[in-house]
Design brief:
It comes from Roseinatronobacter ekhonensis. Helix content is about 70%, strand content about 10%. The protein is mainly α. It has one domain.
Length: about 160
Amino acid sequence: MFTTILSAIPLWVFPLLFGLVWLGSRASKSRAVSSWLVYALPMLGLLSLTAAQGLAQAETALTAMAVAYIAGALWGYRAQAAWVIRRDARRVHLRGEWVTMVTILSLFILNFATGIVQGMAPALAEGATFALGFGLLAGVLSGSLMGRALRVARWPVAA
């Protein structure tokens, strides 16, 4: 069974996982990053949007995702204030934290596990409860990245 799962994984998944781990480990240390990286990170939520649309109960998943996205964005907006040191014209100076690693890997694992469930237990993936759970988790995680990016965008630019 494990070899069946491994053989069905597209090759691009492994470099993506490596890149996400690298990105998350960088976030654990204080750093200065290009503003575009902070603004691009919420795009990871698009992966979950595609997965939600592929569920049998897509409407349930997308509705839950939209509501949870707002809640996640509000939380991310508030939380990001603790990590921003300063922002200048092109760079953002951030304190180290592990929330980024947990968030992006949770999104990756959620989407990966959803694909596995759809392939191995399609009856489970077709239920409204599965779609609701997926939508809530994906929405909160994706929304938190957007909220954090919005906080950085609104942060005063240092002279």
